[in-house]
């Protein structure tokens, strides 16, 4: 049954903040039949972001192109239809659209005592609320503080929810299952022949591909993996990877996924000290002969929200502090050997010949990634669009491993439900090319565990 056409008063007006545009340039198209307003202040802010290679620069440029395409020969300070019969209208709202009303409506600049861009955006919402009586005006922003300011002015404010994970607990429990009461003969068979028919342990119709299991009987237990392609449950052994041995079941599962050639996409979630990056790097080094290059990358999150230009030195010196954690993991692996050992010397050679490359993520973006083992560290600081962009660059014989902690977000407009790592885990779970593992136990040191558990 077709939906009844909404009346003008039923259609809401959504006022978009700059943070929403920088998160998703096509956000203007995601408000169904409702109308969308872009304050002119937002366009002024986007003008400052349009140059550069970061994702926010890409989003700014794409939004400006989208707006230009929607406008064509129209004057966009008036209501202009969005593409599609089910879409509403949009317009760019000028500062002081209703100067005659200044005496009768609130003024955020006067109330908060400062002429900031945020306050100009709030004034746009206040003016709309006054001029569009009978219609609900809602400010949409990824900036929590701006939403709080809006609510203090009696403006309804919401986060941008598109792409946001509804239930974070669902992804917390993805990847590993503990099954008790398993027939001891099944466990014995796994130890003797490495695999059993999945029907002897699981209901294949209900199980997800590439799930890891701890199977327990009254007297014994075994680590296992569901191979959906062959419909078998396989035993998972603890194995060294470039002299790094997993210390618990979850690390064993993670290293198995990293070194499994049939799994092309892996995500590893866990708090600091659980060994995410170390395992990914060790697994990559173990498979160095199978790939042309090993790339390690991480997004740059400026210190104290200051641009990297604030740091002294040339571009290499500016970027080194951000890449140091990756070098630390590499040095740890290298120091498992003596300087005279060929394994130690091999790592040095790989760095010198750029067989192993550590770079900021911005330097990787735009490249075609063929025959590459690609590790992306701190993936929780990426947006869903950035995750999609990275994976879409994968060519033949490329494997990508994302590591991070969805609860340790360093960027101001992301949270545990809207970051790219959570989005990836939620959207790709159960795909035969993908495996996810959550590392639960810290292995860095007892002191690090104390910090994670008690502080």
TrEMBL record:
<dbReference type="Pfam" id="PF02562">
    <property type="entry name" value="PhoH"/>
</dbReference>
<dbReference type="InterPro" id="IPR027417">
    <property type="entry name" value="P-loop_NTPase"/>
</dbReference>
<dbReference type="InterPro" id="IPR051451">
    <property type="entry name" value="PhoH2-like"/>
</dbReference>
<protein>
    <submittedName>
        <fullName>PhoH family protein</fullName>
    </submittedName>
</protein>
<keyword id="KW-0547">Nucleotide-binding</keyword>
<dbReference type="Pfam" id="PF13638">
    <property type="entry name" value="PIN_4"/>
</dbReference>
<keyword id="KW-0067">ATP-binding</keyword>
<dbReference type="InterPro" id="IPR002716">
    <property type="entry name" value="PIN_dom"/>
</dbReference>
<comment type="similarity">
    <text>Belongs to the PhoH family.</text>
</comment>
<feature type="domain" description="PIN">
    <location>
        <begin position="12"/>
        <end position="148"/>
    </location>
</feature>
<dbReference type="InterPro" id="IPR003714">
    <property type="entry name" value="PhoH"/>
</dbReference>
